Amino acid sequence: xxxxxxxxxxxxxxxxxxxxxxxxNCADKPVFTPSRLVVKYGDPVAANxxxxxxxxxxxxxxxxxxxxxxxxxxxxxxxxxxxEWDLAPSCYYTKNNSDDQCCSTLPITVYQPPDNxxxxxxxxTGPMFEGRYYALLCEVQKVAPIKNLIVTFYKGQTALxxxxxxxxxxxxxxxxxxxxxxxxxxxxxxxxxxEAKLELGPExxxxxxxxxxxxxxSSVHYKPRLQGSPHFQITIKAGSPLLxxxxxxxxxxxxxxxxxxSGSPHSSSSNVLTIxxxxxxxxxxxxxxxxxxxxxINVEFNVTVEEINIIxxxxxxVVFVAVVAVGGLFYWRYQTNGKICSRLLP
Length: 346
Ligand SMILES: *[C@@H]1O[C@H](CO)[C@@H](O)[C@H](O)[C@H]1NC(C)=O
Ligand SMILES: *[C@@H]1O[C@H](CO)[C@@H](O)[C@H](O)[C@H]1NC(C)=O
Ligand SMILES: *[C@@H]1O[C@H](CO)[C@@H](O)[C@H](O)[C@H]1NC(C)=O
Ligand SMILES: *[C@@H]1O[C@H](CO)[C@@H](O)[C@H](O)[C@H]1NC(C)=O
Ligand SMILES: *[C@@H]1O[C@H](CO)[C@@H](O)[C@H](O)[C@H]1NC(C)=O
Known about the structure:
Number of helices: 3
Number of strands: 28
Largest sheet: 5 strands, antiparallel
Number of domains: 3
Strand content: 35-45%
Bound molecules: 2-acetamido-2-deoxy-beta-D-glucopyranose
CATH class of the largest domain: Mainly Beta
Helix content: 10-25%
Distance between the termini: 162 Å
Oligomer: single chain
CATH superfamily of the largest domain: Immunoglobulins
């Protein structure tokens, strides 16, 4: 047993000695088919290596995994399960008249789609406030290799930011990507999520492996905004109905309070204030205060009540009185002087 072990060790040392003195830039390098491999961790793997036709017998393939078969100048290699993260089989032969070796290495990318992808806000729960910074975190758990990982943040169907990664780790790592947002009113109710994609090149699986996170629905609180474009300068005839409308929206839903021209508050907590029939005393400045937890807006309505023209009324009264007076006079003349009247009115 001891001798066997010794032989194995010796062979191992000799082999590594061979490859370490290896020329990777020689002409007639051994050729791997395929020239590079992309394999999922745990999947079977296979490749062939051909050395040059006229080379010496001394050639081989160095790899700790799988089994090899030689046919002529071709070595076929296969393993039922790829269970190494960093494996680069080396194929070599010895050059004529020298101890130097000519060799090439098969690049293998061993990948593993992430176990899980999670999105969350950094240190924040509950509603956000418009105009402030919030950091979205996308946690991609146990993905390999990190340099092929692309993390994309989404709002609804819109890609917000695409983040490539670098790093030399070939074993699975957990990566947290960050994206800052400044939510506005339009983002209330928006769904944020992120996607982890392994872009492994043309040799890799098509389409590339993608794992997406859960979706988080944001709630954005913002101060009230006035709806439509109400008239703030109102002129109205006495006796007409008055309707003041200061409809607004906001999150949370705003509440309304009204102040009358006298300065006293009105009992209405509605978005509209109505007076069935205005009198001149109702004219003046009405203030509608719309508020929620984010702020208050004050809307002022300047109401001018137009009295019906006094001079016109006096004029009508004067004419009316005059007509009645003249009529009365004629009637009286008729009663007292029939002759005159019978001449005037046959
Ligand atoms: C390796 O060579 C064998 C025999 O020529 C062939 O059957 C096999 O498909 C080849 N494998 C690859 C991975 O090219
Ligand atoms: C190496 O030597 C063998 C015989 O010794 C010869 O047939 C072959 O052409 C030589 N190869 C190269 C690459 O020089
Ligand atoms: C070796 O390769 C030749 C030609 O490519 C083929 O005809 C033969 O069957 C192969 N032998 C084995 C044992 O695979
Ligand atoms: C108040 O104004 C809003 C927005 O312009 C409108 O949708 C609503 O119907 C108005 N309310 C009344 C009672 O007129
Ligand atoms: C309200 O309107 C009247 C005339 O329509 C104007 O004289 C007055 O200055 C206005 N008041 C305010 C506070 O805007």
